[in-house]
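pasting for ref
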Amino acid sequence: MGDYGRTLEFGYFLVPDADDPLLELARTADRAGLDLIGVQDHPYQRRYVDTWTLLSMIAAVTERVRVFPDVANLPLRPPAVLAKAAASLDVLSGGRAELGLGAGGFWDAVHAFGGPRKSRREAADALEEAVTVIREVWSGDRNLRFDGDHYHLKGAKSGPVPAHRMELWLGVGGPRGLALAGRSADGWLPSSAWAAPDRLPEMHARIDDAAAAAGRAPADVRRLYNVNGTITDGASEGFLRGPASQWADELTDLAVGSGMDTFILWPEGDQETQIKRFAEEIAPAVRAQVAQERGQ
């Protein structure tokens, strides 16, 4: 584990609070030059608008930024329909959608919203089945059949096919989920809040071992990171809490020393200011420092 050598990307984690200027924040991220906008998916959260509706609106009012759920709530979104929704958004946006997917959590809230209550093992089983179902629905093939314990396809017809090679990123942290990411996913999507930098080596190792066992190169798996913090003009107050120069150094270390290649800003403070500083001050500095350390 170290630097997988992948091209760096930068994004914004948009919390879908109905009281916030969500579309204007998305436009700010797009105009600032960020690559991605991710939206968390908690349908049972009364303050939030629906994630898929918001992603569709973001795609409609932006020009270049790619959008994705960060991450889609599988227990409340059947994978065949989720796959069709994601492919449809990709087609309608001109190839600007990706799919982040999680096994679920907050089971009391999921159950209150009509979803199943699953054990950790059941949730992991369902996620693995969902990956297969989603790939099948994206295939463009007819007569799709899959008989799992949680999900089924019984002669289904797929379509539309995504407009580009849509990537599937898994927001997982347990051993089984990490192995699944290594075998079957295009990317791994943890958050710094629960996958702190000192945990990354062991987690990468599980992904890499599974990738190798499946005949894949570890670098085939994108490593995205939701990073929570605040950009300030004062002294450092800890990890990702300080001036732009500190952010640039810490994200560079995460790229060349800890294997991460895509950074999704989840900022505290004034969102518009944080987005602009991340895009205009930090992203270019990290790209330059990483290129220098790679000898490019």
